[in-house]
Specification:
With about 140 residues, the protein is α+β, with helices and mostly antiparallel strands. The protein is built from 3 helices and 8 strands, in the order βααβββββββα. Strands 1-4-5-6-3 form a 5-stranded antiparallel β-sheet. The chain has a 3-stranded antiparallel β-sheet with strand order 2-7-8.
Length: about 140
Amino acid sequence: MEFLCDKRIRFQHCDVAGIVFNPHYLVMCNELIEDWFTDGLGMDYAALHRDARLGTPVVRVEADFLHASGLGDRLRFRLAVEHLGEASLRLGIEASADGVVRFRAKLKLVLMSLDSMRAIPIDDAWRARFAAYCNAAPDAR
């Protein structure tokens, strides 16, 4: 299974050339992860931080900017879990429009206690939630 989310490219995402300024793709990835937790995993992202006192900081990013996207484009973002570790997970993300992959990334997240500010093992309940999104990762050449 994969998590899908459409995002429209807005004026704020674009540089003076009228295309997405590369760092904004990473902001959109973070928004996608928040939406995945809330809508895909069934845990409101704000409640994850506020109530469960858990965070998921990104500790590694690999990104490929394959084709330009511009103002008004609607990108379909796909997210899947590529790897589940003891305290981390690697996500495969890609964004496409009109059948063309525009952006592809791998992000490594760590499950962290916001009280101790240290990584914690992924327990069985979280592992089952994350595992539901395994094995459908976008091809990350």
